[in-house]
Amino acid sequence: MVYILDASAFLNNEGMTLKGNLVTTAEIRREIKDFKSRALFSSFSINILAPKQEFVDMVKIAAKRTGDDDVLSKADVSVLALALQERGTLVTDDYDIQNMCHEIGLKFIPASMKKIKKRFFRKKFCYKCREFREGTGRNGDVCGVCGAKLKTKVVKTEDIHNSG
Ligand SMILES: [Zn+2]
Q1: CA of 126 to the centre of ligand 1 (A)
Q2: Which domain holds residue 145?
């Protein structure tokens, strides 16, 4: 079993026990800054892998579709892409990452006991036009009508009864 570890897996999870092949990305490694998380990180034997660009692109396309591209960091994208590539289980307590796991059909487990209860659907909204808009511009976050910067809004939530 391959487990892909997100940075959130190391926060307040001294009790984390995982047996198998543990991997993460260099971006996640850099996000782990506090002493406790670092100590936990070093207590496991974790391989640092880089996801191939095709998997990074797949995650980015899916994130655009759900409107999650505003909330996912480069590290978030890297760990999701690695989980896709390795066909493993993502270990994360980050709700945005868990939400993306549902979207792209990835298995995940929380490092702590809490699990996602809602799935969020987001759309881009222009506060000047007071309308939902498809984003344009280099980052896809500019209103095509008035040129204002678009904000991401949650338009629907859905209850989730089981994960993975
Ligand atoms: Zn507008």
Answers
A1: 5
A2: 118-159
